[in-house]
Amino acid sequence: MSNTSTTPPCSLPGDPPGGRRAVAVWGIGVAVYFVAITYRTSLGVAGLDAAARFHINASALSTFSILQLLVYAGMQIPVGLLVDRLGTKRVLVLGIVLYTVGQFGFALAASYPAALVSRALLGCGDAMTFISVLRLGSRWFPARRGPMVAQVAALIGMAGNLVSTLVLARLLHQLGWTTTFAGSAVGGLLVLALVLLFLKDHPEGYAPAPVERATHEKGYVRGQILATWREPGSRMGMWVHFTTQFPAMVFLLLWGMPFLVESEGLSRGTAGELLTLIVVSNMVVGLVYGQVIARHHAARTPLVLGTVGATALMWAIVLAWPGAHAPMSVLVAMCVVLGACGPASMIGFDYARPANPPERQGTASGIVNMGGFTASMTTLLAVGLLLDATGDNYHLAFLVVFVLQALGVGQVLRLRPQAARRERERIVASRVETVHVPA
Questions:
Q1: How far apart are CA 302 and CA 291, in angstroms?
Q2: What CATH architecture does domain 16-203+216-435 belong to?
């Protein structure tokens, strides 16, 4: 890849200035995402309790997360289109209402079907948060801040996992199912008030171009999606997200706690500490990756492939370890490496962002985000089915991770030259336009 293709995006005419107000407004959006992550991952520490409460087996338990992610993945492109047309605030308000109702419904659910409906509502609301936060960042901060802003948003949002593993897990056993989940729904009401009172789509004087009449005409949606999909950077971003995100997502969302307790013989407390380690590692690595990519765009693909390789290696070591259980040092190393999966998946957005004009940023983010959650959903289902088929043999069930990683790496390597060539063309074109902007 040439030097031209690896130059980070520079400030362009009309770029928003950032500043303290930008941080405050964007912070409200990140708080919405933080609550969504808390709700999304709450089942990860309650999986064994849910199985007992609803009298279900492993594959039925995995259906909770599969349905939630199916709704999430299926909503990504529609949400991207909604953000492009309606703006961030309206979409965030709708998302908060849906995920709060879903979390409260999950608290009161007395049957498996009612709990499934609640998780579906939660997934629908959750789907509206991260794309909106990315759009909010692009409207309030200069383009050159894009990689770091996205990584920090993900970092703070992922801290919601800490609430799940450190707070909800403890409250669940102290206060019980209904009180814990119903109490957590209060967080949704708080961020709803903040959004309604203080959030703005963009700073004064930096409003986007008015929506053209064409956006209301037949074929606009199809044209928007096709134009975004034709960009190699959009497809590259989707496969990067697909390949990197799902190992940690599957572990945190559902199967990590049962695996560590039932297969590795750890106590719930120790297993919770290892899940917390993944989140802490995610936050630290996210800061490092964001800084590296902001300075050296050429590091994007090496970071992606390096993360995938390290993840595959640690999974192989744990699953192939002779004897009943892997030693704690190996499990700790695996959790540290899994913490890099989230930051690596964020690199996918940094391929799609420069490949698409501002009016397609929401749609592009939706396509990228759909990748990782499709892989997560597939893995959750496959692991649940394999556990039932093999008598709860986690070591055989988790082999599906390698299959999806191999598929994703093949696509990333195939698309990399096309994405690099197209990005070079766009960078050259933007520099020419900048030179001809009147003073």
A1: 15
A2: Up-down Bundle (1.20)
